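Example record used in the benchmark description.
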Amino acid sequence: MKIKERIIESLLALSALVTVFTTGMILFVLLSEAYYFFSEVSIVEFLTETEWTPLFAKKKFGILPLLTGTMLTSFIAILVALPIGLTIAIYLNEYSSKTFKAIIKPLLELLAAVPTVVYGFFALMVVTPFLQTLIPGLSGFNSLSAGFVMGIMIIPYVSSLSDDAISAVPKTMREGSLALGASRFQTAFKVMIPSAASGIIVSIILAISRAVGETMIVAIAAGQQPRLTLDPTVPIETITTYIVQVSLGDVPHDSIEYRTIFAAGITLFVFTLLLNNISYWFNKKYHQKYE
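Model output (structure tokens):
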């Protein structure tokens, strides 16, 4: 038995090391290639310049237009996903029957299994024409339709994880609230949600991280025009879209233009790392608060 336990323990440790090693190698490749890029381009220019035209004759290497486009589409996505996902989670826990919840929750999670390229064409061919009837002058490629469909895509992240967080709250808290005369609505918003706040916040941040890393929807529906704007009706470009554009193009691999994708990649890595750390901080803070 001891030999078997040691073998299992070793396999588990190896699995953990493989994960850490893979992450470390990804970071190493990004940093090593980004080092060559920043040896030719000032990091100050990279972080403060308002134009991104590395593939043009007049080259500008300001990441702000790509970063703004990424944040804009992610912000629109979370504006769509948060109220819908949280409402679904509350309804499934406080109002629906167990049979209905057992049926509808797996169906909601199927949204996460739909290929993102399908979402992209849905945004381009269905959502954009519909929005053009409501918003005159809306461009055929825009961040509004891309962000809206991304919001639909990440609804399962918010609804499912929030549902799990609310379900983990002890039943005695719900029963005590109802016994004191509170309505279901009051119990949901004044007892259950505050008690499950850490899990709900984590679900929101993970959904944002998923939206930040999305590629196909924005590549198809948002356009490929890097511009520093908060206008959701015009074409924009995100970091992931640019990486795909250069990776599949005819840019020489040893050129400064090609190395821009590693600089953009390390920026995206740092951004998502910050989101994950914020998620961990919130989770730890609220766990301590409600323990």
